From TrEMBL:
It comes from the Eukaryota. Transmembrane segments: none annotated. The lineage of its organism: Eukaryota, Viridiplantae, Streptophyta, Embryophyta, Tracheophyta. This is BTB domain-containing protein. Pathway: Protein modification; protein ubiquitination.
């Protein structure tokens, strides 16, 4: 504060001794600067030629004896400066700055990136060489908003090599650096869960997804090569192995130990990690390599939930929601044909997860209605899960479909999920099958089809299901 007062006094004393006053002082002014715009705005500023010509090349040239129109009446005492309406205030600020400039211009410029950008733009147009480096130094040293960065990109081509410090923050990052960051992030994102750093881990996982995602028709920031994919594959394998170890540990652990410690929180973290892993693997077309890990582990996951449901504390809705989120990504991949599984494996997935989802959906809805946003089931996720179940079930043999429909209709939670489309399609296909195969059954040349229609193949499954 004391230094600013000393600076202000020094400037006042200097202006007093050399006979120049402050900007706007009509009694000592010998020059009017008119700020004019296309819209007709015309601002008059009473200035002093000695100050402006000393610190601004534009005014120095404009008021020199060699200027072509200087001898015209009033040309020596009035200078027009044309600008945009939005730049009027920045011109005024710059003219005021010329009156208070010291040996260190950075001390004088106002704070705020928008303000300094405006002054820099005017300083470039009017060739104020003292202010340009100070503005650049300020802008380089402070944070920017995205809109401000766009303005910076418009200005820096006009200031040449002086812009190099700013360009260090703006220029695209080298691919090798992106790869190193990606590798470090993957290693952290697939590390063993630590409850005190889960929020950082979640952030790393989000950024990995962002690096691999196209945006507004732009290519992803990173397209992994073979080396990166190999490292990612190994990291994901370790993640799944650690998850399997966690499942085995929880199955052998006393229920009281699970409830009292942080075991459930760690279990939830593992489920979150797998949900994220499936998202990344799907982006990189690596899902088929890892889907079997989840299919094989699903039975253990649901055994753990069965144990918890039988305890006094019951199952936590957070854990069940995370399990549903992970299974939804796997079921979606199966339903789209991204992963091709044999019939029995597809049926196994449906029989494991459909009852669990049906049982837990009302529990999750009840928890979310109590303003607990942590356990709110995303609407898009539920629609995707429901569509995946429908698609997979419609791809199963009709006998297996019949068993699933029978169980669905007899369950109290018939709404979760909505299998009306499966029921309608099954009825339609049953009628169409009867028409199509009616004439084939009596044709000896179609022995294989005759055997199916006569009661062989998957129709046995339907009889067993309805028994």
């Amino acid at each position: 504060m004391q230094s600013n007062l000393k600076t202000a006094y020094r400037i006042f004393l200097s202006n007093y001794l050399d006979g120049s006053g402050d900007i706007g002082d009509r009694s000592t002014s010998d020059l009017v600067v008119r700020l004019r715009t296309e819209s007709g705005r015309d601002e008059w500023l009473y200035c002093h030629s000695s100050v402006l010509t000393d610190k601004c090349k534009y005014f120095s040239e404009r008021l020199s004896e060699t200027w072509p129109t200087l001898q015209i009446i009033d040309s020596r005492n009035c200078v027009d400066v044309f600008c945009q309406d939005s730049d009027i205030d920045h011109h005024v600020n710059l003219l005021r700055l010329l009156y208070v400039l010291t040996d260190d211009p950075l001390e004088c410029i106002p704070h705020g990136v928008t303000n300094v950008l405006g002054i820099l733009k005017v300083a470039v147009n009017l060739s104020c060489s003292q202010l340009i480096p100070a503005c650049v130094q300020y802008i380089e040293a402070v944070p920017w908003e995205e809109a401000e960065e766009d303005e910076i990109l418009k200005i820096i081509p006009k200031i040449g090599s002086l812009a190099e410090p700013i360009l260090g923050r703006l220029k695209p990052v080298d691919k090798s650096i992106v790869e190193k960051i990606f590798v470090s992030a993957v290693q952290f994102a697939t590390s063993s869960p630590h409850l005190d750093s889960n929020h950082i881990k979640a952030s790393a996982q989000d950024q990995i997804e962002y690096l691999l995602t196209e945006e507004d028709d732009d290519e992803p920031l990173l397209t992994p090569g073979d080396d990166i994919l190999s490292l990612l594959r190994d990291s994901m394998k370790r993640l799944f192995y650690k998850f399997d170890d966690r499942l085995n540990s929880l199955l052998q652990m006393p229920l009281q130990s699970i409830s009292e410690g942080n075991e459930m929180k760690l279990f939830e973290s593992h489920l979150s990690d797998l949900s994220w892993a499936f998202l990344i693997l799907n982006k990189l077309d690596m899902m088929p390599e890892f889907i079997s890990h989840w299919v094989d582990g699903s039975e253990k996951v649901l055994q753990i939930f069965e144990r918890l449901m039988s305890s006094e504390d019951g199952v936590t809705t957070e854990a069940s929601l995370k399990a549903i989120e992970a299974s939804a990504k796997v079921l979606e991949a199966i339903s789209y044909g991204t992963v091709i599984l044999p019939t029995q494996r597809r049926l196994q997935n449906v029989k494991l997860w459909l009852p669990f989802v049906r049982k837990m959906r009302p529990v999750i809805d009840k928890a979310s209605s109590s303003e607990n946003q942590k356990v709110k089931l995303d609407g898009d996720l539920w629609q995707s899960l429901e569509a995946s179940f429908v698609s997979i079930i419609l791809g199963l043999p009709s006998g297996d479909q019949a068993g699933i429909i029978k169980e669905w209709l007899s369950d109290a939670n018939v709404r979760y999920p909505d299998l009306r489309e499966v029921f309608e399609m099954w009825c339609h296909r049953a009628r169409m099958a009867k028409k199509r195969f009616g004439n084939i059954a009596g044709n000896p040349s179609d022995g294989v089809i005759t055997n199916i229609v006569a009661g062989g193949g998957t129709n046995d499954n339907m009889d067993d299901s309805l028994a």
